[in-house]
Design a protein that fits this description.
With 71 residues, the chain is of the alpha+beta class. It is built from 3 helices and 2 strands.
């Protein structure tokens, strides 16, 4: 069985090769939280004080990934 970290690492490498930039996506999603974000292409993080907008932030991140991967 693969450990979750090695499997996740492999997925990240393949998706980054397709144009996914996790740092940029985290930054865009965190804006609706009233905060900021960033990171590397393979790992991003963000946050902010407006936690009531968390569902919207997750939706933004999901849609951005979907848009990139579907071309």
């Amino acid at each position: 069985t693969l450990s979750s970290s090695s499997a996740a690492s492999d997925v990240y490498k393949r998706q980054v090769g397709k144009g996914v930039d996790c740092g940029r996506i985290a930054s865009e999603a965190a804006k609706v939280l009233g905060g900021g974000g960033g990171g590397k292409k393979s790992f991003g993080q963000g946050g902010g004080p407006r936690i009531e907008n968390l569902r919207e932030a997750l939706h933004i991140a999901f849609e951005k990934c979907k848009q990139i991967l579907e071309g």
